[in-house]
Specification:
132 residues, single chain, alpha+beta, Immunoglobulin-like, elongated
Length: 132
């Protein structure tokens, strides 16, 4: 992956614990990135009562990925009314329930800030070298 790649990481959570995870293909970072990919999870019907899916927009830096935004759809404590409604509609058996959801920002950890600074410095050095 290139430094500017972004992808979406999807996690199946049951009772707050991650059971499975998948990710989309990488796309070059831009404000209008769209993934038209199906990520399928298998769960037991009894697990769906406490299940949710968390989607995280992840920026890839070298060997490290940093989540920059997230949304959770399902039955989780940080789920909004629209995300819960979407989950309920899917459980009711409606075919192909697709909706847009607003990402919530993810707080940067000190490790994430460190990787971000390193990336900026590398870009500055590259631009300087390219101009000479």
């Amino acid at each position: 992956m290139r430094v500017q790649d972004v992808y979406v990481k999807a996690s199946l959570l049951v009772a707050g614990k991650r059971l499975k995870k998948k990710k989309t293909s990488a796309s070059t970072a831009r404000l209008t990135a769209v993934w038209n990919e199906a990520l399928t999870f298998t769960a037991l019907p009894r697990q769906l009562v406490e299940a949710s899916v968390r989607l995280e927009l992840t920026l890839h830096h070298g060997n490290h990925g940093d989540a920059v935004g997230k949304v959770t759809v399902g039955r989780d404590n940080d789920v909004g009314a629209e995300e819960l409604r979407h989950w309920t509609d899917m459980l009711d058996g409606r075919p192909a329930v697709a909706r847009w959801h607003e990402l919530r920002p993810v707080a940067m950890t000190s490790d994430t800030r460190h990787h971000h600074r390193q990336h900026q410095q590398q870009q500055q050095h590259k631009q300087h070298d390219d101009s000479h």
